[in-house]
Every structure is written in C-alpha cells, then in structure tokens.
Amino acid sequence: MIELAQSWPRPARPLPIVIFGAGSIVTDAHLPAYAAAGFPVRGIYDPDLAKARAQADRHGVRAFDTAAEAAAQKGVVFDLATPPAAHAGILAQLPEGAPVLIQKPMGGDLAEATEILQICRARKLKAAVNFQLRFAPMMLALKDAIDRNLLGEVVDFDVWIALDTPWGLWEFLRDLPRVEILLHSIHYLDFIRSILGEPQGVHAKTLGHPNDTTSNTRTAAILDYGDRVRCALSINHNHAFGRKHQACEFRICGTKGAAYLQLGVNLDYPKGEPDILEINTGDGWKTVPLQGSWFTESFGHRMAQLQRVATGEESVLVSGVEDAWHTMALVEACYASSAAPATPLARKP
Q1: Residue range 66-80, pLDDT digits in tens
Q2: pTM as predicted
Q3: Rounded to whole angstroms, how far apart are CA atoms 91 and 111?
Q4: Which of 13, 63, 116, 133 has minimal Cβ neighbours within 10 Å of its Cβ?
Q5: What gap in Å lies between CA 188 and CA 193, rounded to an integer?
Q6: Residue 235 is part of which domain span?
Q7: What is residue 218's DSSP assignment?
Q8: Which helix (H) or strand (E) covers residue 236, if one does?
Q9: CA 57 vs CA 21, 44, 63, 299: distances in Å
Q10: CA 91 – CA 190 distance, rounded (Å)
C-alpha cells in the first residue's frame, strides 16, 4: 500500500498560545499535544483561579488573573477550551483579526452558532472550531486514501458506537438539555461532512437512559445523501456490560475498496486503546501503521493548521467558523428530527 499522509506541517515560527479554560480536556489533550508539537504556551486563564494556577505551575506557564488580561495578549493564538456558553463573551474581547481556536461545539444551538459566526466576522477573527477528529492520523490517512481514489466512490458510511462513557468527568454538562449529539457525535457528523459533503436531510432520534441522569446518551441517525450513498450512525453510551462487546468504529465502503477504523480513545476513556486503520483495496485487509492517535496528536495537527494560516503559510482555514456553522446546522436538524412525531403505523382494517 502507498504511504498515506498522517500529519500536518508545523509552522516555521510557532506563535505562543493563550488558553482559556483549565478543565480536563486541557490537562488530557491540549497541553500534552502542544508540548509534543513544540508549541509554546504563554499562559492560562480560568474563572477558577486556583485551577488555572495549578495547571500553570505544573506546566511552567503563566496564570492570568482576569479574562481581560488574557485577551489583551498580542502576537498569540487564542485557544478557547471553554463550555459553549462562554465562547461568545470571550470572542468579543479578543483583538481584531486574532487567530483563535474555539472548542466544539460552536455554541449550544444554531442560534448561538450564528451569533458566534457574526462576532467572528465583525472582528475579522481567523477563527476555527476544534473539530480535531479531522486531524487524527487515522483520519488524515483515510481522507488521503479517498482523495487518491483508492476506495473508489464512497457509497456506505457506518458509525457504530457501544460504550460506557463516564459523563461525570464533565461537570458543566450535568444540566444541559443537549448532550450526546451536540458534544460527542458532532465529531462524527463533522467528519462525515468532510468526506461526503452536505446531506440533503437527516432522520434522527436521540434519548436518555433509565440508569443515567444525563439528558441524552443514545442516538440513531440516518443522513440522506440520495440514492447512491447510505450513511447511518448507531450510538449507545450506556453499554455498561464490560469491554468484550463494546465498540467504537467506522466502516467506510467504496466501489473499489473499504476501510475499517477503531477510535480507541473512547474505549476506556481517557486512557483509551490504540486507534486502528485497515484498508482493503481488493487484495485483502492491510493494517496501516499509525503515527499517533486521535488523543493527542490530532490536537497538535489542528493547531498547526490554524497557526500556518495565521502566519501566512496557508490560505485556507480547515474547519473555520464558516464551515463549522454547517456542522451545527446538521446537529440542529438532528434534534429537530428527533423532536418531530414519528410516522404512525397503519391500523389494522
């Protein structure tokens, strides 16, 4: 098999990063990824000053006392590792034209995403949303294989998730009305868009579980791509019966070949298992040796692409807010479909 791209070029002169937020995603992903990629971090701000100072001391960086102090930094990339409700207020404080990475989702609903888009336009921000699954080594390799026509025309895309997800790690989502699609499957919907483009519509149902206080943790969805492409997602975060039959995988089939992927981080999160990419182009399944994983290398590749746009080394911003708004529109359509009445069965004559 030909060698497939799995990384993003680093900027020649990386800009320092100012992080808003000091939660688990910063500890588990952002800071380790930036350190591994050689991106300097200037400092961290969090409303919980003690938490920010603990992170800053651990990583030898500065802790800002106020959001305004952090937002006033010059010549940096801003990294908003914050809950969706906080995004708009921070973006409005950033210097005009600043590069900024916004933690997904782009707001709590499409109205908030539209407000964020308008703020970014008004302030001319070079703003991207952190849909870092696109930048995982396995996904970069898969997209490279598809772009090189190794699979032919993609006609089937299956997402199958059966996990026991520890939602309690994220306190901010405890009382949110939207959780599963907005905060988890949004990654899958965004990646599907990057491969198949915009669907014509969606059929979806999302719901909770009797043993879980989280508002919604299970989803079934079909994306309508017309008469040639079948795309389906089956998501269950309450498969709490041991590892044996849990799964977190994609199956992508084309007219010439197929790919299988395991998204290992979600199996025993955050410790995780290895990612897997296997491709069959007609001569049997072959494992693609991967150069890293979704957690944490993808975060470094995501930041590298934004930095290269900020420094003028690239002109097209991947997952910029203009594109990310369409992922939010797809999320909104899923929730609207879920809330709509189902087609009733015919009654016996």
Answers
A1: 999 999 999 999 999
A2: 0.96
A3: 16
A4: 13
A5: 9
A6: 137-291
A7: E
A8: strand 230-236
A9: 15, 10, 8, 22
A10: 22
Residues 155 and 248 in one domain: yes
265 and 166 fall within a common domain: yes
Tell me the pLDDT tens digit for each residue of 288-322: 999 999 988 999 999 999 999 999 999 999 999 99
Sign of the four-CA dihedral 25, 27, 28, 29? positive
How far, in Å, CA of 151 to CA of 256, rounded? 5
Residue 328 placed within a domain:
no
Query: Does 337 fall in a domain?
Result: no
Q: Is 267 helix (H, G, I), strand (E, B) or coil?
A: coil
CA 75 vs CA 18, 98, 147, 234: distances in Å: 10, 8, 35, 44
DSSP conformation letters of 9-43: PPPSSPPPEEEE--SHHIIIIIHHHHHHHT--EEE
User: 147 and 86: one domain?
Assistant: no
Residues 126 and 152 in one domain: no
Instruction: Quote the number of domains for the chain.
Output: 2
The answer to whether residue 347 is domain-embedded is no
Mutual orientation of helices 321-339 and 186-196 as an angle, nearest 10°? Answer: 120
Residue from 210, 213, 132, 131 nearest 171 by CA = 213
- CATH code of the domain in which 177 resides: 3.30.360.10
CA distance 56 to 19: 10
Q: Among 139, 178, 159, 176, which Cα is nearest to 221's?
A: 159
The reply to whether 343 falls in a domain is no
Q: Rg for the chain (alpha carbons), in Å?
A: 20
Q: Residue 158: beta bridge partners?
A: 232, 251
Residue 269 confidence (pLDDT): 87
